[in-house]
Amino acid sequence: MKYLVLNAGALEENQAEFESLHQQIKTAFGYCGECSTRDYCHPIPHSNGINILVPIIGNLYSVLTPEQRAAYHYSLSLTGDFYQLDFEDDFDGPELDRSIWKTHYWEGSTYTPQHNRQMEYVDNPAVLDLSEPSLLRITAQPGPTPAGFEYKSGVICSSPQPTSQTNTGYTFEYGYAEAYVKNPDLHGSFPAFWFIQDGDVNWLWEVDAWEHLGKDPRIGLYHDYWWDEVQEITKGTGVTPNEGFHIPANWIKVGVDWTPTSYTWYRDGQVKRIRTAANGPIGSGPAHLIANFAIGGGGPGTAVNAVGKSFDIDYIRVFKKVAGY
Ligand SMILES: [Ca+2]
């Protein structure tokens, strides 16, 4: 395996190759991350002040030959450690990859009755829409749903459970899980990208890499929760910073670096929160990925005219440390 190392501190031996690929991106698309739109390379402020360029490799695929695709891989460095890609879905369509994703929660539910939502998750191409290039667009559609809700919406879940199902799913233990998303501009919306322990019907912990309430368009939510087996209660912690911009108007990269001793939340390369074992248990064992667009209920508030609003996901990736954990 050949890695395209993009950490500027280790660029020497790969710089020529990187610059060559970078030039191909610029030539093919006319711009790159130096323009800060829906970018193909993204500068990330490194902890030691070095900028890293992380290409959106799925788009890069379109300018590479099959031989180059096979030869090039890439890694990123968050904290000085090198990471390599462990999972990627770029949502290149035309169909959702059913070998990975199911369209309900791991235990089969399509809504959460205790949250009084206005929507039910359905498996419908108008809701889980892959007609845009390299994009999963979860779009609210009018109900009523099978369970009688006002709106149809969508969830994707990478759990392989139950094992009687044919999809293999995707699970991981430790790593940096990232998604590139655009949030719905809708009072009452509650999109999320998260991971949760797999393989047990009893919920033990979850890490919410990104949640957003449409009623607070400048606030990011970075939370995690766990089950306290001694007190038999759910505990959680988090932060809700004002990001200083109108979040639904922008594409953002959100992710959590999960290690045996900590979670670190990132938004566009900025550390938003670090949670260590000193403030509660850190999850272990395999986890699966979830992205969903919830509407209404406690927290988000009532949504009006949600039809046509969408939660867009350009990609979901998981990187793991090359050196292991
Ligand atoms: Ca994509």
The run of helices and strands is EHEEHHEEEEEEEEEEEEEEEEEEE
Q: Main sheet?
A: 10 strands, mixed
| CATH architecture title of the largest domain | Sandwich
What is the domain tally?
2
Instruction: Determine the structural class based on helices, strands and strand pairing.
Output: mainly beta
Report the mean per-residue pLDDT as an integer.
Answer: 80
Tell me the name of the CATH class of the largest domain: Mainly Beta
Structure summary, number of beta strands:
22
Give Rg in angstroms.
19 Å
Shape: globular
Please give the alpha-carbon distance between the first and last residues.
20 Å
The helix content is under 10%
What hetero molecules are bound to the protein chains?
A: calcium ion
- CATH topology value of the largest domain: Jelly Rolls
Q: How much of the polypeptide forms β-strand, as a percent range?
A: 35-45%
Description:
The chain is mainly β. It contains 3 helices and 22 strands. The chain has 2 domains: 3-77; 113-318, Sandwich (Jelly Rolls), CATH 2.60.120.200. Helix content is 8%, strand content 39%. Strands 1, 4, 5, 7, 8, 13, 18, 19, 20 and 22 form a 10-stranded mixed beta sheet that branches. Strands 11, 12, 14, 15, 16, 17 and 21 form a 7-stranded antiparallel beta sheet that branches. Strands 6-10-9 form a 3-stranded mixed beta sheet, with no helix packed on it. The two termini are 20 Å apart. Bound molecules: calcium ion. Calcium ion binds next to β22.
